[in-house]
């Protein structure tokens, strides 16, 4: 039986000692996939995460639904952390003859409830919204994709700030992403690429510059992700 494992190594150039390693393992139990993650950061603490997905029919179906939806429940177990139980419910509808995807998420430990909606305007553009019931904050994002270029402006009604993000695919397996957050005046740049010699190996290099602090050395981060089978 082939088992997929993923090894993630992350390092920050600003702190050479900050190296984080993750080992992930997927196990199938009763037709359900369980993902275990073991995180070791600087050998100072050990954190284990586990999550699973399961499908079940609801005992009662709301009147506005025509059939039974699939419920997805996930939980995370971490040392030195509170157990987190999350419930995720999804619904696909049609609005103005356009597909509308709704996602309702509730995190019990954080007492947070989120509602996400995505409306596909056409094959190239979509509009998404995020509403947090606990804070009343709402975020709106528009996404436009053409060829290998994607533009995503978004507006945060809570912070009253406009964020911009753009990405461009170049050559094969290479992606360049740039972002700017007006609330924190933060400029980000990221480059990710797949290895030419090993399709299971990916690299990611990113830079973060806080313009509010003036001219200074940006925070650089490098990450390698390796998928392998045993």
TrEMBL record:
The keyword Chloroplast applies. One of its GO terms (biological process) is regulation of monoatomic ion transmembrane transport. It is a multi-pass membrane protein. It comes from Carya illinoinensis (Pecan). This is Uncharacterized protein. High-conductance voltage-dependent solute channel with a slight selectivity for cations transporting triosephosphates, dicarboxylic acids, ATP, inorganic phosphate (Pi), sugars, and positively or negatively charged amino acids. One of its GO terms (molecular function) is porin activity. Homooligomers form large rather nonselective pores in plastidial outer membranes. It is found in: Plastid, Chloroplast outer membrane; Plastid, Etioplast membrane.
